[in-house]
Amino acid sequence: PDRPTAVFAANDNLAIGVLTAASGLGLRIGTDLSIVGYNDIPLVSRLPVALSSVRTPFEQIASTALELLLSPAPGGHDLRTALPTLMPRASTAPPTR
Question: Domain 6-70+82-87 carries which CATH code?
Fold first, then answer.
């Protein structure tokens, strides 16, 4: 049947719901369907099928924000970038079809 080979959920809780529903339909997570969440909450690495997730560098963002707030520089437009990191786990694999 025509169905997606992967789902990228807006957050880890939604991804856990997708994982539960897909497993209930008999799909093999990481084989028939890849699932990725967002936020990398601690629970996802300990699920029966460890969930791949995107980790946001919250500490870096907070530290940079504080640095900018406390900076004596006049209000310019200082652009900073904090890149997320994909944490690959058992819930993802290349498509088999």
Answer: 3.40.50.2300
This prediction's pTM:
0.85
User: How far, CA to CA in Å, does 63 sit from each of 7, 82, 86?
Assistant: 32, 11, 21
Distance CA 20, CA 36 (A): 13
Domain range annotation of the chain: 6-70+82-87
| pLDDT at residue number 69 | 85
Residue 5 sits at φ, ψ, to 5 deg, of -95, -10
Strands 34-38 and 6-8: parallel
